[in-house]
Hints:
By secondary structure, the chain is α+β, with helices and mostly antiparallel strands. The chain is built from two helices and four strands, in the order ααββββ. It has one domain (24-88): Nuclear Transport Factor 2, Chain: A. The protein has helices spanning 2-20, 36-45, and strands spanning 49-56, 59-65, 71-76, 83-88. A four-stranded antiparallel beta sheet has the order 1-2-3-4, with helices on one face. β2 and β3 (71-76) form a beta hairpin. The radius of gyration is 18 Å and the shape is globular. The N and C termini lie far apart (47 Å).
Amino acid sequence: MRSFITAAIVTMAFTGPSLASDNLCGNEPHDKWMTKEALKLKATEMGYDVRRIKIDDGCYEAYAIDQQGKKVEIYFHPVTTEIVKTKIED
């Protein structure tokens, strides 16, 4: 029983911090972020019809329609504008 508790504590010590921080894009200073307008232009060039952009978990979250007409949520890194996550609505 004691070894089980020790193993559980060790496991939580290593996985706890990663579970606590669900920040996909880090903590870049806002003065380095691309503007929402520039991000919208980039997303439009990628083929998305952007409806709304907001900030979520340190990322820009764009609500858009893709080229197949599906609603998508795209998470962009605010400095590099790389796509870090995409959700497609069925």
